[in-house]
Amino acid sequence: MLAIVIPYYKRTFFEVTLQSLAKQSNQHFKVYIGDDASPETPLDLMAKYQDKFDFHYQRFEENLGWQSLVKQWERCIDMTSDEDWIMILGDDDVLENYCVAAFYENLNEIEELKINVVRFATKVINSEGVAISKVHLHPKLENSIDFLMRKFKGGTRSTLSEYVFKKQIVETIKFKELPLAWYSDLLAVLEFSEFGFIYTINEAIVHFRLSEINITGKRDDLLIKNIATFNFYHYLLKQKKSFFKLNEQEELLIRLEKTFLDNKKNPYFWIHLAKLYISNLFFRRYILLLAKSIQAVLKRNLQ
Predict the structure, then answer these.
(1) N or C terminus: fewer CB in 10 A for the chain?
(2) Architecture of the 2-209 domain
(3) Strands, DSSP E only, in 167-219?
C-alpha cells in the first residue's frame, strides 16, 4: 500500500492539495499529515475531508522545520504504518487525478525490476495554479547519475513531491541533513536508488507549486542555499566518488569550485575544500583555484 506523507505548515494552498487527494480515481492509499506546530490550523479543512479519503492527522507541539526540514520529514514518516511505499507531498503541491491509479498499474513491473525510486511527470504551477512550465517527461528507466547530469545541463527538474520511494530503503539509508533540506531530496534520489535506476510514470503528472512562500521561490536565503549546495557536491565527491565516471567527477568538481567562488570568504569552504583536494592529490588544481580566488578579490578591490 502507498503512504502519502504531508509535512504541513502553510495553509495557503493546502485545501487544493487535499482536493487533489480526494479526487484520486484509486483511493488505495493513506495520508499522514504532520503539523509542524503551525500557527495556521488546518482542523476545519480536516473536518471537510473526513469522509473523502483515509488520513491520520497529528499536531507536533515543537516546530522542527525552522531548524531541520529533514527531521520534520522523518517524524512524519514515523507516523506511517505498514505501507511498502511512501510519497512525501508538499502542502502546496497537487496530484493529477490519475497519479495513484497509475502507480498501481505499473507496480508489478516496478517490483519485478527491483526499483526503489519511482517518479511522475511534473509541471510547475504558480500561486494561481497556472502552469508556468512544460510537462517534464523522463525516460521510463533512467540511471540516477544520468538523470543528475541531465539536470545539471538544464534538461530537466526535480522536486521531492514527484517521487515515490520504497519505504524500507528510506528507513535504512535516511535523508541526509543539508541546510533548508536544499539538495537533500536530490541526494535521496541518488542514494535511495543505490545509484541505480529510476522508474518513471509519464502518464500522470504532479504539479509543483512555485510561489514566494516556499523555499524554492524565496530569494532571501541564498547564502544558506549556497552552503547546502557546496555540501551536496562535497559529499558526493568525498563519500560517493566511486559511483561516478571521471568526466562526471570533473563535472562535480567544476560545480563545487563555482559554489566555492560564489562564497569564498566562508572559512568552512576553505577547510573542507583543502582537505578534499589534498586527500585526492589535486595539488595543482587547488593552487589554480587559489589563484583564481585571489584574482577575483583583487579585481573587485580595483573596481
Answers:
(1) C
(2) Alpha-Beta Complex (3.90)
(3) 197-209
How big, in percent rounded to 5, are the helix, strand and coil portions of the chain? 45, 20, 35
Per-residue pLDDT band at 271 (split at 50, 70, 90)? confident
At 51 the three-state DSSP class reads coil
Judge whether residue 200 has pLDDT over 80.
yes
pLDDT tens digits, one per residue of 116-133: 999 999 999 999 999 999
pTM over 0.85: yes
Query: Between the CA atoms of 55, 59, 64 and 70, what dihedral angle is there, to the nearest 10 degrees?
Result: -10
- DSSP conformational letter for 179: G
What b/e sequence results for 192-203 when a residue is b if at least 16 CB atoms lie within 10 Å of its CB, and e otherwise?
bbebbbbbbbee
Compute the distance between CA of residue 93 and CA of residue 79 in angstroms, rounded to an integer: 20
At 184 the pLDDT is 97
Distance CA 267, CA 146 (A): 32
Angle subtended at Cα 233 by Cα 227 and Cα 234, rounded to the nearest 5 degrees: 80
Distance between CA atoms of residues 175 and 90, nearest Å = 16
Q: Measured between alpha carbons, how far is 82 from 227 in angstroms, rounded to an integer?
A: 36
The span from the CA of 116 to the CA of 120, in Å, is: 14
Q: Has residue 191 got a pLDDT over 90?
A: yes
Measured between alpha carbons, how far is residue 273 from residues 177, 201, 245, 266 in Å? Answer: 19, 39, 20, 11
Domain ranges for the chain, please list them. 2-209, 222-302
Angle (nearest 5°) at CA 272 between 196 and 153: 45
| pLDDT tens profile 83-100 | 999 999 999 999 999 999
Measured CA to CA, the distance from residue 286 to residue 23 in angstroms comes to 55
What is the predicted pLDDT for the residue at 6?
98
Compute the distance between CA of residue 124 and CA of residue 131 in angstroms, rounded to an integer. Answer: 6
Q: Residues 18-41: what's their mean pLDDT? A: 97
